[in-house]
Protein 1
Amino acid sequence: MLRSKGLTDKVLLLGIDGMDPRFSRKMVDEGKMPNLKKIIEKGSARHDLRMLGAVPTITPPMWTTLSTGAYASTHGITGFWNVDPQDRSKLIYALDSTMCKAEQVWNGIAESGLRTLVWHWPGSSWPPTSDNPNLAVVDGVQPGYVGFGTGMRDDEVLVTASPKVTEAKFMPKAGTSNTGAGCILSDLDIKEESAGSQAAADACQNAGASVENIMLTLEDGEFSIENMPFNTAQSPLKDAEGWTNAPEGAKEFVVVLCNGLLRRPCLLLKNEAGDYDTIAMYKSKKADAPITTVKYGEFSPIFLDEVIKEDGSRIMCARDIGYVYHDDDYTTVNLWINRANDITDDAAWHPKSLHKEIIDNVNSAINWAVENDICVIYIKHENLSAGTRTFKHNTRGAELVSELKIVSDNIFTKYKSNMLTSAEFVDFIKKNEITDFYITGADAAICVKSSCFNLRKANYNVFVLSDCVTSYDKKQIPEMLKYYQSKGCILIDSKELLKK
């Protein structure tokens, strides 16, 4: 019998909503989708890319059919909304697993002993219907992306900058009307948040989120999800003045966010040919470097920035911006600001965030160190390898996480896994005659492992806080704890540390 082993013991099922097979096949044949072509060639598919279909061809029932192997008439999910059997005047939001009458395939996979992650599957995935420890489920009830409803702390904004505008102004929920690229928005009717978008957010917290089934307009029913209102803002566009680092010829405008509570100054910058093609957003005119930059016709990388809530509190969020339009003489510019999502939101995560647990433990250990007059040192990691996609300089992946308590300026950067490869760090510990180290961090199997090994090799005393280290593969942590001990490190739980 022929026996063979696959190249990996992992399987990724990637779904793309609304991906028409005929159009996809056409684009592949024309060379316009080279990555899809690679996937097809490495896998298995009919030439026309078609599969056995079902009806109705709407997101929730079809994704539920994919996950259960049952038709809509069996699993019971027939659209974005199902009529409430107890109250015919209401529609119940159907991206809700409690309404599904068939079992999802991932339950069986997890219960057979295989670790399974269901990431934003938009059909009967949330809330989880199995409590098996092998199963992790993230969101799946909010069109768009993870945390689209529950994590949103500031909504989208279309910004128009023009010399014709006399005052920077924020206009909430200006509507979904066709504004037209380059127009100046004024005197728009304010629209209420759609009932459908609110139900989508509510579904993360409670089953049975609903809207009234009384159709007076399209917004009253399931089309409300596709017809959400957005905020607008406008600003004067003028020559840059009062900046610390404004290049010659730069123009300035201001982005008004958070219902008018937050302002971010921006520069419109020229390229070498003298054409305006870049927008840089700053925290203030005095800042040395921008929060982010974006080229014309593109969206920026995701960046972190604070959001101000109505009560004055501030929260760190992730968002991006797009430079979407300018007219021929650059007298009108449109900037699209995407939603700001709370990076700590875990309302639709199961199990709840290990990240938060680790951070809480680390912050408790930092408090202990401060109370006991122990020096606290932070070490960042940057990847200098060509073509790298992680830990790149000036990206959020190379920064300390925002929830981490910062109590000192002892922040060093390393470029290899071993912390002793940072010359500045080595000079600091020698100068301050530091001999004992309490170690926290990630990754347990790479950076923590290498640093512990080399610290012990250099005859330092090393204490590893066992509940303050983590890894991409948590199964490796017990093995790594044994490794640390084998090299002479002492393991200690942060809770035991606090008792001392």
Protein 2
Amino acid sequence: MGPPLWTLSVAESLTAGHLQAQLSSVSGASRYFAGGVTAYTLQQKVKLLGVNRQRAEADRCVSEGIALEMAQGAATLFATDLALATTGYAEPYPHDWVTVPFAYWALVQRVPGGGWQSRTGRLECPGANRVEVQAQVALHVVQQLVTYLSAMRAAVATSASVPPPARRRPR
């Protein structure tokens, strides 16, 4: 077994370690999983992950953009190729007009030249209690990662199986 194609890190809020637990439960996870951060408060998201304070305050730390910033922050903190992040509400919160628990998630991958490729989503968990929401969101995000990696592996395999163009001999 050779080295992994990509390394991975995680930034969690809503899932509070559930995602890291799922990723590290696989034998040999230390080959690709560098680590993670559970940043539950705005202060820790800003301090540890570099989340923009004004944007986080405006969004109450829950938005697609915050999930993206958290994922990018984790990839930077752990120097990984890929990172995942979750943020949301694990239970209804009438003060913020949240009637159904939900999460935003993000998956980012570094691209040459310093940019990011990303996927994001929102998952609602009607009728689920707090612990069920955390487990459902973590499982959903792992499934998104598997889908993404499967597509990436297929792309790498396809490009590796295509022979380079033939060179013409000078006349």
